[in-house]
Amino acid sequence: MLLGLLLLAACQSKEVVKDAEKEDKDNIINIMETGEIPGVNPTTADNSVSFRAINQVYEGLYRLDKDGKPALAMAAAEPEEKNGGKTLIYKIREDAKWSNGTSVTAADFEYAWKKVVDPKSTAAYGPQMEEIVKNATQILNGEMDPDQLGVKALDDKTLQVDLENPVPIFKDLLTTGTFFPQNQAYIEKQGKRYALSSENLISNGPFKLENWDATKKTWDYVKNNKYWDKKNVKADKIHVQVVKDTNQALNLYTTGKLDRIELDGEFVSKYKDDVDFHKTFTGRSIYLKMNQGKDGDTTDLANLNIRRGLAMAIDKQAMVDRLLANGSTVLNGNVPAKIMFDPKTKEDFRKQNGDLLSYNPTEAKKYWQAGLKEIGKTELTIALTAGDSSLQKQQTEFMQDQLQKHLPGLKINIKTVTQKASFVADVSQDYEMLLGGWSGDYSDPLTYLNLFLTDSPGNHTGFSNAEYDKLVLGAKGSLSNDPEKRWEALLKAEQILLKDNAALVPLYQGGRAYLQKATLQNYIAYPIGSENYKWMSKAK
Q1: What is the average per-residue pLDDT within 407-423?
Q2: Reported pTM
Q3: Could you tell me which of 384, 374, 257 has the C-alpha nearest to residue 314?
Q4: Same-domain status, 521 and 385
Q5: Structural domain boundaries enclosing 147
């Protein structure tokens, strides 16, 4: 009898182990990324891949909910308002922890925000605070010390924020990486190694980043058991691998090694009737950047007629129909459609401002030839830099053909680099023309127009216009309490950027066509803002 009981117990133990192993496998989700993560430091991040990772491992005072609305996160409650709404007092959750067990404090926010506006930090998106948080503009301009920023830890769990003016979009801003906390003691201990590998990183968000450094093509998001809301984090692990070729992605998907993949071009029509197929639109604005010069030096692209010729010489409709076919639509402005609306009339921003730079090969040729005459040349060779995904390669070849066909004397040399190298070329302004874009951080035109302020760390084009700066900064500050005047300022700013100055070559508003296993649930992808994996799960 004793022997029988021991055998039974042993068998049951083996079954428990098998069930546990099966459960672990069921809770592992496999997804793809378009490129390597260059880094996950919220202060210096400057690209969509980094911000996508940052959104999983960090968390600010608010996090977007499943519907894309700001919901309380590190903040325990809505703030106490003083001084006519210009002073906000936040209480930090008592159970907010870093993944190493230390408490998330108000000082973590104060430290992080002051780093963001410190010119020495070379923070990519310090201007997010410009004209919004008190003294941020003066600090960014080197006229004040970062310690004078309008943020202060009153005690371990109480944070005071002083604004220049009450800002309707401030809660949305607080969901973005620029406003996430950082632990000063940990960062100073790590030094230059901080956030360059998973060994030199702590998290306060739903997941920890593991098995990663800046060169790896695979990594894992592992459930953070110190996270305050861990009960709602269903996935034990999300395994990510970089896939740049759609054929490869399909192979991995059909063999069960990926739970979701993106599709484009011919693959969309091939799989559009598949039960796993889905299509939606995004707020991603795709364009060509043109380097007009920097540090006092100018390029041939500083000529307005040259830029206008380039901007009007690409058949964008053919591009979205032939190469993409994923729900992307032609974009003749910088701010995308169907997301941002007039506060009074509710009319779409894109519809109101109309087409600012449209495809017109006849006019493009006239502008081009006028520009060549003005710079004293009969021909021009321009390098076009882009990432190395199969789609980007197809796009650059298409644009090369279009530009050379419609603009006599133009030669386009395609420079294909890794996605990471493309980000570096953009930030360092080491390019002539570059295929880029912006997804936006929050649902307001400012998130697109703020990038092109003079000397903004997000500009990298050489474009500078005093009236543009005045309008955009006004929309952030002095006009923030007059919604209609603010809206008019943003409309006018976009006209200056494109209609008057052709600072960019707008191409299309990104769509998203994808295959997703029915077992994958709550993959939250917003039209604007980084994906949110917090609630993602895999049905058994």
Answers
A1: 93
A2: 0.86
A3: 384
A4: no
A5: 28-239+517-538
